[in-house]
Amino acid sequence: MRIDVRRKQGDFQVTVAFKGASTGVTALFGPSGAGKTSVVQMVAGLVKPDAGLITVNGLCLFDSARGIDLPPERRRVGCVFQDGRLFPHLSVRANLVYGMRRTPPHRRFVTFDAVVALLGIGHLLQRRPAGLSGGEKQRVAIGRALLTSPALLLMDEPLASLDAARKAEVLPFIQRLGREFAIPILYVSHALDEIAQLAARMVVLGGGRVQAISDPVFGAG
Fold this sequence. Notes:
By secondary structure, the protein is an alpha/beta fold. Helices cover 29% and strands 28% of the residues. A 6-stranded mixed beta sheet has the order 7-8-9-3-10-11, with helices on both faces. A hairpin with a 2-residue loop joins strand 1 and strand 2 (12-19). The longest helix is centred in the last third of the chain and has 17 residues, at 164-180.
């Protein structure tokens, strides 16, 4: 994963360049207003950089020099947000396969059974989101994103809405993702305790710029 982007947003200038970890989780860390959301939106294709380059596993998502700007639906980015964003009228099983059915069969490399086993959600398949705890909802949201067989898994503060107990429930599952699936993960958070458990590489942002890049020895990858 290589991200090298520039974008001016009013008086705020984002100038960010870094390479992701070779395996596991690359974490974007910084306070509110550091530029994390701007980077996420540019990677996902929701906003366009003024200039730069974004590539993931050999797939070029954006290259201003060559005029490449893939639309979001072609970027193969699986997204997990704070609130899960599950379809309330669908069962857990139906939520899980929703994205998978929209991925061409020849691009599918993540299987339903493997995801259900990894996330420990087999007993939830017939339930609807209203009957799930916050931690269960996030595990299902992670599963739904994985089943799109993404080139990149983008996790935007996925634990921010959970209490300490639910965070402790979900973190081990995120830790295992890098080991179980060959999918780079860009994990966004302002919670250092989460990053300390997860990150193979930490990119510290502040004022729209990279302040530091480190490969923490405590990162689980």
